[in-house]
Amino acid sequence: MIHSSSTVELADDLAADYAPHKRSFWRALVASPSGLIGLVVVAVLILAALLAPVIAPYDPLRMAAGPRLQPPSLNHLMGTDDFGRDVISRIIYGARLTLQIGVIAVGISLTAGLLLGLVAGYSSGWTERILMRLVDVLFSFTEIVIALACLAIFGVGLTNAMIAIGIASIPFYARVTHSVVLVEKGKPYFEAAVAAGAGHMRLIFLHLLPNVVPTLIVIGTLGVSTAILAAAGLSFLGLGAQPPQPEWGFMLSSSRDLISRAPWMMIFPGLAIAITVLGFNLLGDGIREALDPRQKER
């Protein structure tokens, strides 16, 4: 059967109707209290990471920047650690590592999971069964077990920890992508595109992908907080960041024996992790609300 190009373009217009409208996205995000708070927290984190050499009062690796285990004071707002290093400087520089962890780990899992889920959902048949059964096998293990197995192969270190966390989260993103693709394939705009004779590339990149990406943006933003917590946990166990890296999880680990003498060494890195995780969670909720068409109708 030969189909005219105008028929295919009509199917493309139907796809656009189902795709989320981006014109009022930022307005809806700022109007959401959770989205606004999350956006501010994440923006402060990014600015701290970019401007760390400017705003940090000391070199984060400089020993004897002040007296050892000095409580918070005007010279050292968050005190010093057992090597005399300035705690606030290490926390500011730690923001860089935190962003790297989130971006790299989520980037690995999101990219691989998107490809697996998209191929499996679109192709159907044996390809879908094989790919999704492999995903189910990985799903039978918890993410921390997969991450520990990867570290056992790659070795300890922050870079390997980020890769391990990314690999461990691939099944989750693949499963979500696969589910969304199956839903989109059953909608009228996709069936119209198939009936109009649209090619595989057009179906995937023009019809499916634009409608899958918004969901992945939301879960990817939420996944950053999960990756940060996982990396902090691995560093706390000595499997992630290594000395003298100013990573917040490692700072918690190195100060656990001094909690009674210098509680600020654990309080401030712990607060940094908690606020950052909360910020990304709130931002993810705000993005979800901004992309939800039901919110726009109210």
From TrEMBL:
Sorted UniProt keywords: Cell membrane, Membrane, Transmembrane, Transmembrane helix, Transport
TM annotation in the entry: 36-58, 99-124, 144-168, 262-283
Domain ABC transmembrane type-1: 95-284
UniProt record, GO biological process: transmembrane transport
InterPro entries: ABC_transport_permease, BP-dependent_transpt_permease, MetI-like, MetI-like_sf, OppC_N
Protein origin, superkingdom: Bacteria
Membrane topology: Multi-pass membrane protein
UniProt-listed SUPFAM superfamilies: MetI-like
Primary localization class, coarse: membrane
Compartment list: Cell membrane
The keyword Transport appears for this protein: yes
GO CC, one annotated term: plasma membrane
Claim: Transmembrane is one of the keywords in the record: yes
PANTHER family, alphabetized: OLIGOPEPTIDE TRANSPORT SYSTEM PERMEASE PROTEIN APPC, PEPTIDE ABC TRANSPORTER PERMEASE PROTEIN
Family to which this protein belongs: Belongs to the binding-protein-dependent transport system permease family.
Protein name (Swiss-Prot/TrEMBL): Peptide/nickel transport system permease protein
Organism encoding this protein: Antarctobacter heliothermus
